[in-house]
Design a protein that fits this description.
With about 750 residues, the chain is mainly β. Among the domains are: about 110 residues, Nuclear Transport Factor 2, Chain: A; about 110 residues, Nuclear Transport Factor 2, Chain: A; about 300 residues, Copper amine oxidase, catalytic domain (Beta-galactosidase, Chain A, domain 5), CATH 2.70.98.20. One of its GO terms (cellular component) is plasma membrane. Keywords: Copper, Metal-binding, Oxidoreductase, TPQ. Its cofactor is Cu cation.
């Protein structure tokens, strides 16, 4: 064979190979570029979602300017205000009445006026009080209206106000002044003069209405680590009820099981050998209990989640759309995340889905621990939702959204990137089947879900708030708890209240109870509450009369009143409980959404407790009531500091009214008991520490709506599953080369501290 023939054959072979590659690459219309694919056009709402939009910084500034010029009283910036001053405590959106909003959204009515809710502390008045004003219209306010009595049935006494940052600063200064009375004790117990100790508040603050006396717990403070695991055994009780700061005083001191009058008495007891002192050495930074510094150098990175051809969801203003879903999102600075007008395939399912409260109730044999019942809404669940860390708190390529708030200041603040939105591959089929009989085929659908997430840091704990939207039409709500446990100094019978987790550290037992509001509008506002559960009946075999069997049957019911629909915590509840529309699906069943709760809640505070009514929402795992504008929330920020006469008592919402063919609200409690253990150091892990609930379609559709998902996979035994046009999974080797261009990592979460 001569050289010319060899060259000709080589050229033909190369041409053949090139042609085959082109055929394989184009066969089945597989993706050929890494360009972002345009989203399927979602229905535009024409800006209607802005009726629920959080206030902008500009609107907040206008409200401050209006109040300063219209109230006729001197206002001091809350960041500098003494208890005897008047100040603006907070400004937030005044959510319009539901009837007005629906006339606007559904009937072409006028847009409701945009208004703010301003909370003011009036300390410089003959009768100090807290007053709430509705201010509007925005963006140029022209009126204000006192709504305090309308909202709460009376005035709000001044002692119920949340403690401000300035008040805490003044208390800390008082404690430091008090500690100077015990220099020899502090040097012996803690190798300290007191100035390097961290001070942690407890709550509530006393035993009866009007009290404002708080136990403060002292800890060793090592920069760069969580001090919560290093109590020194010293706690002080501060009476800060007077509006005159000079009248504040330390009224009791506790150390290692002993109660003394003040720090001077503590010093005297130490000097005279009447005090058992536990001598603590200052820990080294690398050995401090609870350090989160990595102990191993970085290695190869783990899996990276990204969208090969760009996000498949769209975020515009305060609205996100994704494969038939439409959700309007926002953030209350006190109660945290809130969603409105949740629609699937154009139909509203939920009008409002919002977090209401997070309770942490502790046990201990130290005064601070045993008296602690934190109601986190009074501290600011939304306010303390800081910037999320890209690539850890949320996927690196998620969409990050800023949130703005005005609390304890006349200047708005921004928590940048404090809410994230992303599509998540759950790495499990939503549904699938492998057929090995009659005909051979495989069919399945990936469980991809849209996630809206924010994370609140509330003193020691971090709560991860997730709202997830599935292609099956289900809504999933979940909270994970992480962060540091709270602790007491280990003494006496301390392990009756938890586990030892350090040399002198007791991880104190506590329960987490979380409360949500779910205003379901299932195929309209008028609904009923239906139940279904299982029973067995003993019957004769139809084909063999001499024998019998236990036959499973479905017991259906309908709840008629609020009392019937209030299910105490821990009591049996129907396994199927659904909000039902009067309208029927194709098969003759009421179009419904089922509430499915996943919770391990601890026992509720006994109703005999004088402060129980303040958290009476915790009595119920589920309660369904008529929706009322005058019952917008199950709690109040004022309940924390006066739980003995609560400003809002949820138990009063349940008064046996009918729940048949009414606009209904489900109030859902979830939670868990946490007995800290060695593995909670340095941090509590999210694994096993999550609870929540589902809203699942139940005969709402005529079939599973995910059949219309573009992510379905099907191929038969006769087909070539390796062909991109037959099986979209076969396209992945091509799309996998579409690695995204990642934005540089930046973090500015410490700016507002």
């Amino acid at each position: 064979m001569n050289v010319k023939t060899v060259l000709v054959l080589l050229v033909l072979a190369l041409a053949t190979i090139f042609a085959l590659v082109c055929v394989l690459l184009t066969r089945g219309k597989g993706p050929s570029t890494c360009q972002h694919q345009p989203l399927q056009e979602e229905d535009s709402d024409g800006g209607q979602s802005l009726v629920f939009a959080d206030l902008s910084p500009e609107e907040m500034v206008q409200v401050v300017r209006y109040l300063r010029g219209s109230l006729g009283v001197a206002l001091v910036d809350a960041s500098r205000a003494k208890p005897s001053d008047n100040c603006i405590a907070s400004i937030d959106l005044q959510v319009p009445a539901k009837a007005e909003v629906l006339r606007f959204l559904d009937e072409g009515g006028a847009r409701p006026p945009r208004q703010a809710l301003a909370v003011l502390y009036f300390g410089n008045q003959p009768e100090p009080n807290v007053t709430e004003y509705v201010v509007g219209p925005l963006p140029t306010p022209a009126y204000h209206r006192d709504v305090t009595v309308q909202r709460y049935g009376g005035t709000v006494p001044y002692h119920r106000r949340p403690v401000t940052g300035k008040e805490y600063m003044d208390i800390n200064a008082l404690i430091q002044q008090e500690l100077r009375k015990a220099p020899r004790f502090l040097a012996a117990c803690c190798e300290s003069d007191g100035t390097d100790l961290a001070i942690l508040t407890t709550a509530p603050r006393g035993f009866k209405s009007g009290d404002r006396a708080t136990w403060f717990v002292l800890f060793q403070n090592m920069p760069g680590t969580g001090y919560y695991l290093s109590p020194v055994g010293l706690e002080v009780l501060v009476d800060h009820s007077s509006l005159d700061i000079s009248q504040w005083a330390v009224s009791r001191v506790f150390y290692n099981g002993q109660y003394l009058a003040d720090a001077g008495a503590l010093e005297d007891a130490f000097v005279h050998g009447l005090l058992e002192v536990i001598r603590l050495e200052k820990p080294q930074a690398e050995a401090v209990l609870g350090s989160m510094r990595p102990r191993q150098p970085p290695r190869s990175p783990g899996p990276l989640q990204f969208e090969p051809q760009g996000p498949r969801y769209s975020v515009r203003d305060n609205r996100v759309t994704f494969q038939g879903w439409s959700i309007t999102f926002g953030m209350n600075p006190n109660s945290g995340p809130r969603l409105f007008d949740i629609r699937y395939r154009g139909k509203r399912i939920v009008y409002e889905l919002s977090l209401q409260e997070a309770l942490a109730l502790y046990g201990s044999n130290c005064p601070g621990g045993m008296s602690t019942r934190y109601l986190d809404g009074s501290f600011g669940i939304g306010r303390f939702a800081y910037e999320l860390v890209r690539g850890l708190d949320c996927p690196y390529t998620a969409t990050y959204v800023d949130r703005h708030y005005l609390v304890e200041s006349e200047t708005p603040k921004t928590n940048q990137n404090s809410l994230c939105i992303f599509e998540h591959d759950a790495a499990i089929p939503l549904r699938r089947h492998f057929s090995d009989s009659q005909s051979l085929y495989y069919g399945g659908l990936r469980r991809n879900v849209l996630v809206i997430r924010t994370i609140s840091t509330l003193i020691n704990y971090d709560y991860i708030w997730d709202f997830m939207f599935h292609s099956s039409g289900a809504v999933e709500v979940r909270v994970h708890a992480t962060g540091y446990i709270s602790s007491s100094f280990l003494h006496g019978q301390g392990t009756d209240y938890g586990n030892r987790v350090g040399p002198h550290t007791l991880g104190t037992m506590h329960l987490h109870h979380i409360h949500y509001k779910v205003d379901l509008d299932v195929d309209g506002r008028s609904g009923r509450l239906c139940t279904q559960d299982m029973e067995y009946e003993l019957v004769q075999d139809p084909w063999s009369k001499q024998n019998s069997m236990e036959r499973l049957y479905l017991r259906r019911g309908r709840l008629q009143t609020e009392d019937e629909a209030a299910f105490p915590l821990g009591a049996p509840m129907p396994r199927y409980l659904s909000f039902a529309s009067p309208n029927l699906n194709r098969w003759g069943h009421p179009r419904s959404y089922r509430i499915q709760i996943a919770s391990l809640a601890g026992k509720h505070l006994p109703t005999s407790s004088p402060m129980e009514r303040a958290i009476s929402w915790g009595r119920y795992q589920l309660a369904v009531t008529q929706r009322k504008e005058e019952e917008p929330s199950s709690t109040s920020i004022y309940n924390q500091n006066d739980p003995w006469t609560p400003t809002v008592a949820f138990a009063d919402f349940i008064n046996n009214e009918t729940i048949t063919n009414e606009d209904l609200v489900a109030w859902i409690s979830v939670g868990f008991l946490h007995v800290p253990h060695a593995e909670d150091v340095p941090n509590t892990v999210t694994v096993g520490n999550s609870v929540g609930f589902f809203l699942r379609p139940y005969n709402y559709f005529d079939e599973d709506p995910s059949v219309d998902s573009p992510d379905g996979v099907y191929f038969s035994g006769e087909q070539d599953s390796a062909v991109c046009g037959t099986n979209p999974l076969a396209c992945l080797p091509l799309t996998a080369v579409c690695a995204p261009h990642l934005p540089p990592f930046r973090y500015r979460g410490f700016l507002n501290l």
